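Data deposition worksheet. Section B asks for the primary sequence of the deposited chain exactly as it was used as input, without tags or linkers unless they were present during the calculation. Section C holds the resulting structure in token form. Section D is free text for depositor observations; keep each observation to a single sentence. Incomplete worksheets are returned to the depositor.
Section A, Depositor: J.P.
Section B:
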Amino acid sequence: MEGFVSSAQSLQALSALLSTGQEEEEEEEDEGRKVTALAKLGPGSIGPPPTKHKEVTTAGVKRNSKDIWSEEEVADGSQFDDLTDLRPQPEYEIILKQSVGTEDVFLGLSGKDPSSMCCEAILVKIKLPDTKATDVVLDVQEKFLDLRTPKHKLGLHLPNAVHRHEGKAQFFSEREELQVTLMVKRPMDFINMQ
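Section C:
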């Protein structure tokens, strides 16, 4: 019992140090019985009382009362989305590529690892059944790939920024597949790669 009293006294002393000096020492009546300040202590009574948070508004931004999102909340590339086009989206696969040699695989000399940070290219494989290579219209932006055929459309937000003019596309008619290889923009190459 003596250990309980010392821990209760320690808790009370700690509360007194951290509190703002409100009248925790006074005794109050609670439903007809006396409650001491020690009995009122709990985890929420340590420290200053919580403050009420005010709603943060950005100054200078005019908001329409019917707006759902602000311009800052809309994802990059959403201007490419065409909701009125009902053509189906083809199956696709995104593969991150990096060039490694035997010294990387067995000895780890270049400092490359299997993470996406060390990848140099993005390969996008797109299945296009019943399509000819001449029917494909492909537009590559920094973070968006737009593919249109008479039967399919694909608007793909890329996981990394790419060099839009340093890619290549190959159409394999026997597999009915388009493979687009895009070089990743790597602004920190001097840190990531050696």
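Section D:
The two ends are 66 Å apart (CA to CA).
The beta strands are 28-30, 33-35, 92-97, 121-127, 137-140, 144-148, 153-157, 162-172, 177-184.
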